[in-house]
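Study this pair:
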Amino acid sequence: MKANALWITGPFQAELREHELEIPGPDQALVVTAASGISRGTERLVFAGRVPESLWPAMRAPLQYGDFPAPVSYGYAAVGTVKAGPAHLHGRRVFCLHPHHDAFVAPVAMCIPVPDAVPDRRAVLAANMETAVNILWDARPLVGERVLVIGAGVVGLLVTYLLGRMPGLDLHVCDLDASRRTIAESFGAAFCAPEDVPGDRDLVIHASASTEGLRLALSRCGFEGRVIEASWFGDRGVELPLGEAFHSKRLALISTQVGQVAPAMRGRRTHGDRLALALDLLADARLDALLGPETAFADLPNALGALLSPPSGAHQPLCPVVIYP
């Protein structure tokens, strides 16, 4: 069986390549893809060839083809149906951390069944929801805390969605794009522009991938507040005001990254357990607001640049969805 795959062939260049699929082994499954999601922050850096060489091993996708900087077939949000493999998975819909291919062979352990209540299109958010779950495990929010999320992209809004289910939080979301207000408010948060962000926050989750956003996060923390850094800056340096109130307020700046299960749950939950939880948490139609636009797989090489970096003033998509024939 032949399959087609999206390959990044150089900075801002992509094409579809055909290859022969291997015959699935006893611990593998053949999956025919129905949809995949584009994680704009990470995939923008890969498309631009800006993954730092020092982080090539760490940023390698679980089932990536090729090597950084290019040619590379990258991605980690595929949903499809198992056509060959173990009896307990045959014919079932699964999510897999796989690049944008119209069919693929993957380890059975990485093919996580999609709950019946979660449609294919929404299931592509599983990798981002898994990141949001891990962020909360690192953040350890407490009932009644004053919480701020800076950056209303997909991850920031999924974090907001999870925090909005906790009782008693004073929850605010900050973003430059006022069009994100409706989604944030539907998740139970107050929306604000940077100039209106309240101070004295107990917990700030930064997900804007901007120096200005991280500086704002530090400035709005209260005494012994903690900032959870959820952005990835690639090869960009960040200058921070660590000499102002950073020490006198005893602030904590904590990194979070989905490659490892957060310490709060490490040893008690596997990566597979965390991903299965993320899929279960997607059984809410309100999350469809994060999806779109839809692009046919055949059109993806030509559409990818505009999806990842829309022209100034154009609508900024959250999670573009690739649809397969």
Remarks:
- Residues 131-255 form a domain with the Rossmann fold fold (CATH 3.40.50.720).
- The chain has a mean pLDDT of 95.
- The two ends are 16 Å apart (CA to CA).
